Amino acid sequence: MPYRPKSTLEQWRILQAVVDAGGYSQAADLLNKSQSSLNHAVAKLQNQLGVELLQVIGRKAFLTEAGDVMLRRSRILTQQIEDLELLAASIDMGWEPEIRIAVELVYPKEFLYQALAQFHPLSRGSRIQIIDTVITGTTEVILEGKADLVIAATGVIPRGYLGEPICVAHLIPVIGAAHALAQHKQLDLDELSQHLQIVIRDTASKPMEGPGGWLKAEQRWTVSNFYEAIEIIKSGIGFCWLPEHLVKNLIAEGVLRRLPLTQSSERLAPMSLLTPKEEKLGPGSRQLRQLILAIHGKTGSPL
Membrane-crossing residues (predicted)? Predict the structure, then answer.
């Protein structure tokens, strides 16, 4: 037999109102209902559950120990119902139930997190999915329309798509303090090519030859993200081109060292925000796009 609830949401909302208002009389004024109807609703709820939830002392209603526990759980339930109904209304208005954001790994995500913090109270229950992409994996996401918003390295944006420049990521060659090269005052690329390089895996299903940076080292280990690369090079194994914002504190602490290359001492990765399918962009995605642009000091010109 399917489960049949003994109580209703309205009964729980009435109980919450009585507690929050401090009594039946105050709650009746708040809800524009008669005091007797509230007394009846709470009494029926307690009888149906077989648990005493409220005790009336004088003119005030006080929660019992069991009532306090159940009231807290009921607030979660009623909030979930409100969120569900709001989501249904938002979908009916064209507001997306989910917003997908593809982000190139070199992008400083603290900017995105600031925008998301501002977006959260406006989100109407929309889920957010953040997809990490690398090199031609970013191109693939754009071409296949797998995300609503894409933060991409400008160099991998395919023909026919335009993005709004938002910032420039700096990648620098880094080693661990225990690496043999840590004592060198100068180093050329030919010598560097003889050492193990840690590289980040392209996220495309079929990686293509493209702007993947300096990959001349004979020995390479491939990892899925920069944090894995950092842990490896911290142990004194290999070198890696890493976003400066991820490693500047570790360099300042002496855990990592920046390689003193005689040329190409850093790579610049201009970043852009674009929408692969502008015509299908929903209101939530448009709102989030404006917030990301504003974080970067942009006015929100069309992408």
Answer: none
